[in-house]
Design brief:
Largest sheet: 5 strands, parallel
CATH class: Alpha Beta
Distance between the termini: 38 Å
Structural class: alpha/beta
CATH architecture: 3-Layer(aba) Sandwich
């Protein structure tokens, strides 16, 4: 284990907070999210598990989701994060969160400080390769282009960090934990606080 790894304690009297590992399919959200949750000793929520049966069928058939599919999905993820973080002090979810509007919806709905860890890569070929070799997943590689088109850059007022998705998982986890530790060592900030600050 790299020496830069750390476990970030969340004392019983500290306010709860939530973390979303975001990015397009194939970027490694689930791998990093599960590892972060292990180090933080909290629940990991797989965003794909919150899709409706209709949305899964739609993606399986090669059709991208639209906003009407995504709003209730985002609300279910936020509710799950909220409940899990209240239990453990924090919780981690993997969720694409491609648009700014989606991230704002999540931040408002979760009801506590929300941190985004964005796994970014410009190598669409590597993403496609990962998707082709991913077993037992309903989203075909053909939908990657629509996700890349939908992705909106993080704003300066968003409580987020961008990491290179092509780095090794151990390095990504260490970098994410270091950033989370810095973020949570100061006063807690809500999404509304961030908007006022901007």
């Amino acid at each position: 284990m790299p020496p830069s790894f750390q476990t970030i304690p969340n004392p019983a009297d500290a306010p709860p907070y939530a973390i979303i590992v975001m990015g397009v399919s194939g970027s490694g959200k689930s791998t990093l999210g599960a590892e972060l949750a292990r180090h933080l000793r909290c629940d990991f929520l797989e965003g794909d598990d919150f899709h409706s049966a209709d949305s899964v069928a739609k993606m399986r058939s090669g059709h991208p989701l639209d906003d009407q599919d995504r709003w209730p999905w985002l609300d279910r993820i936020a509710a799950g994060l909220h409940d899990a973080a209240l239990m453990d002090g924090t919780a981690v979810a993997a969720c694409s969160a491609l648009k700014r509007a989606y991230r704002d919806r999540l931040a408002d709905a979760v009801g506590m400080p929300l941190l985004f860890v964005f796994l970014d890569t410009k190598d669409s070929g590597e993403l496609a390769r990962r998707l082709v070799h991913r077993a037992d997943h309903y989203m075909p590689a053909s939908l990657l282009a629509s996700q890349l088109d939908t992705l909106e850059e993080l704003g300066p007022d968003e409580r987020a960090v961008t990491l290179d998705a092509e780095h090794a998982p151990d390095r990504l986890c260490a970098e994410a934990l270091a950033w989370i530790g810095r973020e949570m060592s100061g006063p807690a900030e809500t999404a509304e606080d961030a908007r006022r600050r901007s």
